[in-house]
Write a structure and sequence with these properties.
Layout (H helix, E strand, L loop, with lengths): L3 E6 L1 H12 L4 E7 L5 H7 L3 H10 L1 E5 L7 E5 H7 L15 E6 L8 H9 L5 E6 L9 H21 L1
Parallel strand pairs: 1-2, 2-5, 5-6
Antiparallel strand pairs: 3-4
């Protein structure tokens, strides 16, 4: 049987956690880079009531982003409502595999505190949170990528030794 190390960045980090919950028997370990667990729901819920009502009426929400040519992403309101069914940070997260979370402390999209919340809520006892003092959201600097590769290599070595 094959076991996988899932690696997810930003929203992919949230999806990584959801996949691990859905198929725990297939997961060897997780590596999250600025994992955005519950992010869209959290940001939406912090909007003024008028903006939330407008998004519901128009069935879309324009989320500002410097990563989009338009300066925002258009998110269907139905996506936000569905995402509410997949929030993880309000209760224990029954994931027991090793987890490594890497987060930049200069991340302006997803606060590094989200990685700390994930670490606090997962049931795994093998959890490391690595904070990069000058790291940005995408963690795309040469040293950030080296750290990611090292982290995955280290997990592979650990799992090979155990298995």
């Amino acid at each position: 049987m094959f076991y996988q190390i899932l690696v997810g960045s930003s929203m992919g980090g949230w999806l990584m956690l959801l996949v691990a919950l859905a198929r725990p028997e297939k997961i060897a370990a997780l590596v999250g880079v600025a994992p955005a667990a519950d992010h869209f729901v959290t940001v939406f819920n912090e909007l003024p009531l008028e903006e939330k009502k407008s998004a519901e009426e128009k069935d879309e929400w324009k989320l500002a982003s410097k990563y989009s040519e338009e300066g925002f992403y258009t998110i269907p309101y139905s996506f936000i409502k569905e995402a509410e069914n997949h929030c993880l940070l309000n209760s224990p997260i029954p994931i027991t595999s090793p987890i490594r979370l890497i987060h930049g402390m200069k991340d302006e999209e997803v606060p590094w505190h989200v990685s700390m919340q994930i670490a606090d809520r997962v049931l795994s006892t093998d959890v490391d949170v690595i904070l990069r003092k000058h790291g940005l959201h995408r963690m795309s600097e040469k040293d950030d990528i080296k750290l990611l590769v090292y982290t995955i290599d280290d997990l592979i070595d650990k799992l090979t030794t155990l298995g």
